[in-house]
Every structure is written in structure tokens, then in C-alpha cells.
């Protein structure tokens, strides 16, 4: 028996490949399936089942393409109602795979169809739990995402999650290993550990959610501090439930090279977003006017989902040459399939065609410290509220990037201000969005608060509530 966790850091997502005696299963596969097909051929195994823990909100699964290319059936837990052919398993149903067995544990609460899969080893003993979004390491799945679909309140779903955990998971042996669907950085939870595998016994000891004194206390604890989910989440759920375009077609469209003239025409006639995936420093020096910068070397796909929102938005790409396929693939993982093509030759082809360019006024932390005037300078901190609360520039306004589409309208398009994040990645996203909407009178700080903290700029952890609310 072999268990392999296939972890994707950008999504903080774990897919699982298990095989025994020539038969294999995949749990919660990623959108692009060719790597799985290559692996089956290399290992000489046949894919027997594709298990889905639930209708994912934060990424588009590869279950449909994988099933079409292998003939393996898709398995969902009880109450799932997808629009495509699959097997709806019963609670505690057993599936044999080589010399091992997969046992279905219906664990509603995160969503109604949420299901964990318990692996029983060759002797029939509980060995591993593939817990989906029901149980994370250090946390449990948020119970507020499926309220409308389930016609239930988040409190009712949280109560259902408590029952699932207490009745289905807590009685399992401590030595069972827990393999969750997500780790730290995912928006599907709030308190996840950076580790991606742990024993159930350790989780019983340290996971705050598993150590509440009552169901009421559990409900209060898991609902406390939840931020609004990203706008693309319900769209990904719909794609996972109803179906989607083949990844091969999405990739072919995205890899279509556009000349500068064709690129320009697509932006104007197709109302396409120009997404520049180069590094923030490159974008700051020169970029196509009104393009949005979300660097590929970061939490790329989740930020695209958060700030662009609508997965049906047409997109044209500016990418470093040779990385176009990577960009398209990562966009498709969060459902952004309407990619019309990319700028052939990258940004250099744009400048070679003598097209108009823009830039961001990026300054060093030392220059910021020299120009900052206490009580006079306006500073916009786009980090998360928790980061801001820990420490921030004196009198800075906290405007998290997650909610830029809500707060940008309140920014004075003629007023001057400074802007920063933790290291420069998020603040460049914010800078590009503000510039695309006609706001140019700001200076973005390279290196963010990490660099500012090393200067003599006045800092504080004092919270002025108005600084969290308005600019």
C-alpha cells in the first residue's frame, strides 16, 4: 500500500494518490489530470475510483476530466446531487482497492454532502482518514459556506459539524493518520497548522475545535472571527457540481499568442482584463496601462479569485516567456476558464511596438521613513486586520486587499498617500487596481512593513477603530 499526498502550495490543497496491488484511487484531484495519468502508467496501476470529499469552493476539481480519460467512476458521499453521472455512496459503504478498503463516513456540517474516507489496511484496521474540509490540522471546516444551498443557518450547520466530529471521527483510534484537504493559507479555515499530516490523537489533544465543553461552545468558537468568503467560492461550487469545459480546451485557448495589436483590440472590444503575472518589481518599472498585476510567484490563483471575483470574466495575459502554460493552469484551478490568449513575446513585444506604458511610483522603506511626517502623512496598510493589529505604522489606515473592491471608491483620486503590505506583493496588486481605476497619486513601499520595521518610522500596536473603517 502506498499513500502519497500531492500538495499544491498556491492553493494550500492536498490531493491524495493511493494504490495497492495494481489498483489506485485519487481523492480530490486537481484540475489538470495529465500528471496523474503519467503516474498511473509509470507505476503500472489502474485507476479504480475517484473520491470527492464534497463540492469544493476554493478550487475546481479534475474529477470530470479524469473520469472521462480513465473510465473510473466518481464517488460522492450521501446527499450529493451533481449534474453528471457518478456514484452516490451510502454512509459506511465499503470500496475495495487492491488489498485495502475505503470506508465512507458521511460527515455533514461544512457542507451537507461532506464525507471523509477511512482507509482500512490489509488486516482491516483503521489506518488513515482523508478528512476533506471536515477536519483540518488545528481547525475544522468553516460552516458558513453552504447556508443558502442547505437552507440552513451557519449555526445549524456548525451544530451538524459538531455531531459529525463527535460521532464519526473522535471515536477512531488515536494512531489513525489525518490527511486533510487543506493547510495553512486556505480560506476554508481560520486556524490551520502549517503541517499537512498528523495523528488523530494529537489533534484530539491540541485542536481547539475538538476541545470545546459543549455543542454551544463549539458553535461559538468555530464561527468566531470568520471573514467573508471570497466572491469566486460559490462559482467554483457550481462548476464542481454542474460540470465545466475540458482543461485541454482552456489550455489551448490560453496558449494562443496575440500580437500587441491583437492584444490591444481584445482589451478594448472584448472588455477583457489585462492580467500581468510578472514580478511586482518588473511591473512597477513599466506595464501596460490599466493592467492588473498579480505575480505568478505568490498566492496567485486565490488572489485572482479574490480581486477579480467573477470566473466568467474574459482575461488576456502578460506573462514571462515560457511560463504561459503555468499561468493558464493555475487560473483554471480556480475556475477562470475564459482566457482569450497571451501577449506573444511577453511585455518586451509591447515595448518593441512602441506602445504606451505606465509605471508605479515605488520607493524604498528608507525613502518612506525620510518622507513620513507623523500626524500628516496618509498611510494605507493593505495587510489583513490581524497583521495590522500586531503592529503598524503610526496612524496608518488598515484597508485589506481582500476588500479593495469595497473601499477603493472612498479614496481621494487626487490626494497623496503611501501604501504598503507585508513584503510588496499585495501592495503592488492594490497599486495596479487603483491605477486601473484612475488613482495615481500614491507611493508604494518596496519590501512593505517588513522593511519599514527596520527603519525609525514611528510604529504602534494601538488600534484606532476609525483607522480600520474609513480613509
Please explain how this structure is put together:
The protein is of the alpha/beta class. It contains 19 helices and 24 strands. A 6-stranded mixed β-sheet has the order 1-2-3-4-5-6, covered by helices on one side. A 6-stranded mixed β-sheet has the order 7-8-9-10-11-12. Strand 2 (13-20) and strand 3 form a beta hairpin. Helix 4 (154-169) crosses helix 6 and helix 8 packs across helix 12 (324-332). 47% of the residues are buried.
Please specify the SSE layout and strand pairing.
Elements: E1 2-8, E2 13-20, E3 23-27, H1 34-43, E4 46-51, H2 63-70, E5 74-76, E6 87-88, E7 94-97, E8 100-106, E9 115-120, E10 126-132, H3 147-150, H4 154-169, E11 177-180, E12 198-199, H5 200-206, H6 215-223, H7 233-242, H8 247-254, E13 257-258, H9 260-269, E14 273-276, H10 280-285, E15 292-293, H11 300-308, E16 315-318, H12 324-332, E17 339-343, H13 347-352, E18 362-363, H14 365-371, E19 379-381, H15 385-390, E20 392-393, E21 397-398, H16 404-407, E22 417-420, H17 425-436, E23 442-445, H18 448-452, E24 459-460, H19 465-469
Parallel strand pairs: 3-4, 4-5, 5-6, 10-11, 13-17, 14-15, 14-16, 16-17, 18-23, 19-21, 19-22, 22-23
Antiparallel strand pairs: 1-2, 2-3, 7-8, 8-9, 9-10, 11-12, 20-24
Helix pairs in contact: 4-6, 8-12
Amino acid at each position: 500500500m502506498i499513500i502519497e499526498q500531492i500538495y499544491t502550495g498556491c492553493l494550500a490543497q492536498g490531493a491524495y494518490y493511493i494504490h495497492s496491488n495494481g489498483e489506485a484511487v485519487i481523492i480530490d484531484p486537481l484540475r489538470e489530470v495529465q500528471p496523474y495519468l503519467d503516474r498511473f502508467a509509470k507505476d503500472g496501476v489502474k485507476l479504480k475510483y475517484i473520491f470527492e470529499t464534497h463540492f469544493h469552493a476554493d478550487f475546481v476539481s479534475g474529477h470530470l476530466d479524469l473520469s472521462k480519460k480513465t473510465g473510473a467512476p466518481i464517488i460522492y458521499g450521501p446527499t450529493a446531487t451533481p449534474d453528471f453521472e457518478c456514484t452516490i455512496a451510502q454512509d459506511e459503504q465499503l470500496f475495495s482497492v487492491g488489498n485495502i478498503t475505503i470506508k465512507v463516513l458521511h460527515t455533514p456540517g461544512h457542507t451537507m454532502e461532506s464525507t471523509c474516507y477511512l482507509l482500512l489496511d490489509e488486516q482491516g484496521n483503521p489506518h488513515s482518514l482523508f478528512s476533506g474540509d471536515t477536519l483540518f490540522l488545528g481547525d475544522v471546516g468553516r460552516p458558513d459556506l453552504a447556508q443558502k444551498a442547505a437552507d440552513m443557518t451557519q449555526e445549524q450547520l456548525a451544530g451538524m459539524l459538531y455531531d459529525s466530529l463527535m460521532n464519526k471521527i473522535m471515536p477512531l483510534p488515536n494512531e489513525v493518520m489525518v490527511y486533510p484537504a487543506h493547510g495553512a493559507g486556505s480560506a476554508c479555515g481560520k486556524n490551520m497548522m502549517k503541517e499537512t499530516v498528523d495523528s488523530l490523537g494529537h489533534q484530539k489533544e491540541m485542536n481547539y475545535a475538538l476541545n470545546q465543553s459543549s455543542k454551544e461552545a463549539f458553535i461559538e468558537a468555530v464561527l468566531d472571527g470568520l471573514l467573508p468568503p471570497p466572491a469566486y467560492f460559490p462559482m467554483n461550487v457550481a462548476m464542481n457540481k454542474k460540470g465545466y469545459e475540458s482543461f485541454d480546451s482552456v489550455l489551448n485557448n490560453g496558449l494562443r499568442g496575440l500580437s500587441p495589436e491583437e492584444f490591444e483590440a481584445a482589451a478594448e472590444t472584448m472588455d477583457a482584463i489585462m492580467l500581468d503575472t510578472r514580478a511586482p518589481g518588473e511591473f512597477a518599472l513599466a506595464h501596460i496601462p490599466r493592467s492588473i498585476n498579480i505575480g505568478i510567484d505568490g498566492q496567485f490563483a486565490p488572489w485572482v479569485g479574490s480581486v477579480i471575483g467573477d470566473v466568467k470574466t474574459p482575461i488576456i495575459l502578460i506573462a514571462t516567456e515560457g511560463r504561459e502554460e503555468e499561468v493558464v493552469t493555475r487560473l483554471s484551478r480556480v475556475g477562470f476558464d475564459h482566457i482569450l490568449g497571451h501577449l506573444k513575446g511577453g511585455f518586451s513585444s509591447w515595448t518593441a511596438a512602441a506602445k504606451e506604458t505606465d509605471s508605479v511610483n515605488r520607493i524604498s522603506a528608507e525613502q518612506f521613513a525620510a518622507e513620513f511626517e507623523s500626524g500628516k502623512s496618509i498611510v494605507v496598510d493593505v495587510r489583513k486586520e490581524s497583521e495590522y493589529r500586531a503592529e503598524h505604522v503610526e496612524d496608518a489606515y488598515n484597508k485589506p486587499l481582500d476588500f479593495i473592491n469595497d473601499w477603493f471608491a472612498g479614496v481621494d483620486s487626487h490626494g497623496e498617500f503611501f501604501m504598503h503590505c507585508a513584503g510588496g506583493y499585495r501592495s503592488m496588486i492594490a497599486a495596479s487596481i487603483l491605477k486601473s481605476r484612475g488613482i495615481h497619486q500614491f507611493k508604494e513601499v518596496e519590501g512593505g512593513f517588513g522593511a519599514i520595521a527596520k527603519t525609525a518610522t514611528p510604529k504602534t500596536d494601538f488600534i484606532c477603530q476609525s483607522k480600520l473603517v474609513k480613509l
